[in-house]
Amino acid sequence: MSVWEPSRESGRFEDAPERPYTITVIAVISICYGLFALCPNAMSLISPVMGIGMDALQAQIEKEESARRAEVEEDYADQIEDAETEEEKEELRGELDDWKASNPPFDPDFFAMYAWMGEPIVIGYFVSDAVLSALGNLLLIIGGIGLLLVRPWGRKISLFAGGYKLLFALVFAIWYGLLVPGQMESMDAMMAAQTRMAQARGGAAGAAAPIAMFSSLSWLGAIAGAVFMWIFASVYPLILVILLTRKPTREAFDEVVAWRAKAAADDDDGPMSSPPA
Length: 277
Fold this sequence. Notes:
Number of helices: 9
Strand content: under 5%
Helix content: over 70%
Shape: rod-shaped
Structural class: mainly alpha
Number of strands: 0
Radius of gyration: 32 Å
């Protein structure tokens, strides 16, 4: 199909060069990629919100847990005081010790992962990732639309977006790499707290085995996730830049643009119609 719709009254646009197939494919992929990638951008803002919100939740849980423990201990203290024999008192003290052993005090490390999410440098990472990545994705969408319309600005914006996304992927991969040790430390602390709770309530080390195994795989999961996200974020922008700078693609695109400029200059009947979708 020609880039310009043929005139209903004459066939003077029949010699219009076709929009390069490569440009059409790149344009459609850029638009779809940009729209799809905007979803993770919104999700990135959830992590810092969770980190900040968990601080208040942790304080509330700690306060309620302390009040509950104080109430139970006070109740046992009253029973011990009212006991008539020393044997009854010792039995009640033993029950209280057993209850304390199976109900350990609130462990702040249980929320260590969320506390890590609330750190300023981590919040800065997620917010910057969401905003700057969304900007790159919007540029891809705009550039893709410009390519479909075979406009010079579409190619320029697409090339800029590709380079921007490549630089973005590199910078944020390094930034995330700096955050991984803290993330793994907080995750290990959280898993250790869950292990202690499982052992206290279950009384067997085997009850915590799945948690310990998950903790040992946390590093592998973090690295695999980071590599996948880096590939997802950088492969298409790299392909985009390569294809748009290839000589055949560039010359075919410029041919359409040049024909449009010449046809517009020679057009005495009104403005050119828009390219087909």
